[in-house]
Amino acid sequence: MYKSIRVKLFLTLLLSTLIVVAGMYAFMRESFERGFMVFVETRQKERIDNLIEALADYYAKDQGWRKLANNKSKWIEILSKANPHGHYRPPPAWLKQAAAEPAAAWPPKLPEAYSKRHFIPLEMRVMLLKADKSILFGRPERLSHLSLKPIYQGNQSVGFLGVLPGKSLNQLGEIQFMEQQTEAFVWIAVLMISLSASLALLLAYILGMPLKRITAASKALAIGRYDTRLPIDSHDELGQLAHNFNDLAAALEQAEQTRRRWVADISHELRTPLSVLRGELEALQDGIRPLTRDAVDSLYGDVMRLNRLAEDLYQLALSDQGALSYRKTQTDPLVTLEEDLTAFAPEFERRNISVKLKNRLVEPSIIHADPDRLSQLYRNLLKNTVNYTDKAGQLLITVSRVADKISFSFQDSAPGVMEEDLPKLFDRFYRIESSRSRSHGGAGLGLAICRNIAEAHNGAIYAAASPLGGLEIKMELPVY
């Protein structure tokens, strides 16, 4: 079942808070109870000491236990005065039960059900014994359960105060205090959980808002709305995610524009030679143009232009996908360049273009490259000079070493290229509307292929204005 990130964040924060609050509640309650028990035990010991002191004073005043024996009202009076926290006021059932029992019987024998329902104070758990441990106030059947506290007169033991076992927390006020504190802890825990739930809800909303915007923007991007952008409101991970999303959207928008331009350019490039072919064939069919060798040569030229365009498109598509096969070996790029210059010599002679190669290398420089792809790159550059340089022009090729790179410079003569057009020369299908135009048969893919080949060799290629008045192509390849 689908759950939004806000719900997950809310539940995570709330669960974390519940665990923390529950742990704090358990720790605080245990710590409080332990400390309170120490306090109660200390207070009970104080009351026992007070009771022993009161009995010792009574013994000294009356010179013995004779007047206290069988005087239950006096015994109860001593017990009440020994309570430092107020007068002893036993419930009426205690007095009624005590009056119905023998004078020395203490504590009153209350019903077991009553004992379970009510708290038995300390005064109802003590017995008084003489020095010989005979009973003054007490029950013989409970002697074995007593914890005896001696009563001294001077240095002589004159009796014992027996304390029956029982929980240290046995006073009503103490129990009520414990219950009040426990209830307070519960309400504090409930309040903290409520505040935490509100805070978790707020945090889930705040943290979920940018994620919701990213989700909506991703859906828009998925249906082709590449102009979608996200606001960057922070510098944290979410802000970085929004920044990366905007970069992705911009890249997709540019890719979509390139694709559309690519399709339009291909359609345009194919339409021109196809229209020419169609016109020539229709002229031949209608008998307007005789089927001569010149007509066939013209048709063949149009077919070859289509073939070159298709081959350039194929090569560019392969290089874009990284599918061009590269068989890199230790290669001397100058040897490959000299071979290509030899192959293009007839073309340069036909155009009356002088070619000069300046080798400024002190020693041969070997690079790790594919000689066939290097030859393809060289030939595209040489073909551009043949196609676009004016007749009786010139081409100057300079090869030099710059640090750990070998540098190539192809400088040709007029016509030149406007400065604003130089960065666009390596874009596919880009051609300037001047003498370097499609009238020479180019499709604007050669330099794009050259750039892909140079980058595949970890090199760089760029264009500049030539000192000879034309175009200069500079290329650098690393030497290993």
How would you describe what is shown here?
By secondary structure, the chain is of the alpha+beta class. The protein has 3 domains: 169 residues, no CATH class; 84 residues, Orthogonal Bundle (Helix Hairpins); 150 residues, 2-Layer Sandwich (Heat Shock Protein 90), CATH 3.30.565. It contains 10 helices and 11 strands. A 5-stranded mixed beta sheet has the order 6-8-9-11-10. It has a 4-stranded antiparallel beta sheet with strand order 2-1-4-3, with helices on one face. α8 packs parallel to α9. Its main location: membrane. Pfam families: HAMP, HATPase_c, HisKA.
Task: Write the element-wise H/E pattern from the N-terminal end onward.
Answer: HHHHEEEEHHHEHEEHEEHEE
Number of helices: 10
Uncertain spans, ≥5 residues at pLDDT below 50?
A: 434-441
Q: Write down the Rg.
A: 54 Å
Question: What percent of residues adopt helix (DSSP H or I)?
Answer: 40-55%
Total beta-strand segments? 11
Beta-strand content bin: 5-15%
Major sheet description? 5 strands, mixed
Mean pLDDT: 80
What structural category do the secondary elements indicate? Answer: alpha+beta
